[in-house]
Prior knowledge:
Layout: E1 10-15, H1 21-35, E2 39-43, H2 48-54, H3 60-69, E3 71-74, H4 88-95, E4 100-106, E5 118-124, E6 128-139, E7 142-152, H5 155-171, E8 176-181, H6 189-203, E9 209-214, H7 215-224, E10 231-234, H8 236-249, E11 257-261, E12 266-270, H9 287-299, H10 303-319, H11 333-344
Parallel strand pairs: 1-2, 1-3, 3-12, 5-10, 8-9, 8-10
Antiparallel strand pairs: 4-5, 4-11, 6-7, 11-12
Helix pairs in contact: 1-9, 1-11, 5-6, 7-8, 9-10, 10-11
Nicotinamide-adenine-dinucleotide (NAD) binds near residues 20 and 253.
Amino acid sequence: xxxxxxxGAIPATLIPGDGIxxxxxxAVVHVLExxxxxxxWDRQLGGMAAIQATGDPAPKALLDSITKNHLALKGPLTTPxxxxxxxxxxxxxxxxGLYANLRPVRSLIPGGRYEDIDLVLFRENLEGLYxxxxxxxxxxxxxxxxxxxxxxxxxxxxxxxxxxxxxxxxRHGRKKVTIVHKxxxxxxxxxxxxxxxxxxxxxxxxxxxCDERIVDACAMQLVLNPWQFDVIVTTNLFGDIxxxxxxxxxxxxxxxxGANLGEGAAIFExxxxxxxxxxGKGVANPLALLLASGxxxxxxxxxxxxxxxxxxxxxxxxRDKVRTRDLGGKATTRQFAEALVKRLx
Length: 345
Ligand code: NAD
């Protein structure tokens, strides 16, 4: 499946995913070609699409490809609710040790509900309740009378994600990191995280300010006054929820990219899921995945291309006023991609 690799090309795995995944992936690849981004794609199936083709949601060919390339762009993957196979997103993060989930949100269109949003969330990506150590307890004739889940946060894992957040803050000239927890109630589970993050914060105290919030208060303050935040670091589940909320500040899930980062590999994706309600209609916003490809360009040292991509997105959204339906426009996925390509060529 590997495409022929032109000179200087950077091999990367491309997982179109399912639902709206293939539509937005096609649009993104089209735009990246026009940008002359140097990726040599190795297309691989994952999730529902892989089950249909091979019976396995995470086929060996997919895992081998990421092992070889250490780099992937991934469309969303559907996970069955309440039963069925375990999330392939979670499995990929675990398999490749992708402990840091970087989720930046930035206002791209002026005149929205909130202006000038520029926030970054670091979510611990391997621990917490997402370890999914779960079981049911039967009572009487109800085999699922009680659901039990055990969450795990380690000092080492908490320290590692805090380091990632503070290092990012230093490298990107950010002023403050906010540690978000629920250590007032989950004293062990998120207490360990808070303790470890405080230790890391001490190390950086001359370079970056630090404060703390309990997660529920943080959620409310993000709505009332999001500008008080800069970089947020938190545990797995809280990070998942808060990053969707933050996407809402800048126009919705169509605008929020993410990067799953580890020592040996990096997988870039949109924050959103497979959007089954609009899949196949050609109306999905490809921007979140496109912005994720911008993070991927920065990751491989192609900052100029990433900058050019952001400039062109700005021109198309704000000068040409070409926008998809979720942003109040009328453009289809393909029309939006074409508008970007036109500006790039
Ligand atoms: P979702 O993010 O797929 O959709 C939520 C809402 O946002 C829907 O109304 C959808 O139409 C809209 N939306 C999402 N992306 C959009 C886009 N690019 N353009 C326009 N509108 C967009 O969340 P869901 O419906 O709760 O989840 C669907 C499936 O996706 C589930 O199986 C879930 O497990 C999976 N999921 C996967 C990932 C991932 O692959 N990283 C992330 C989240 C959810």
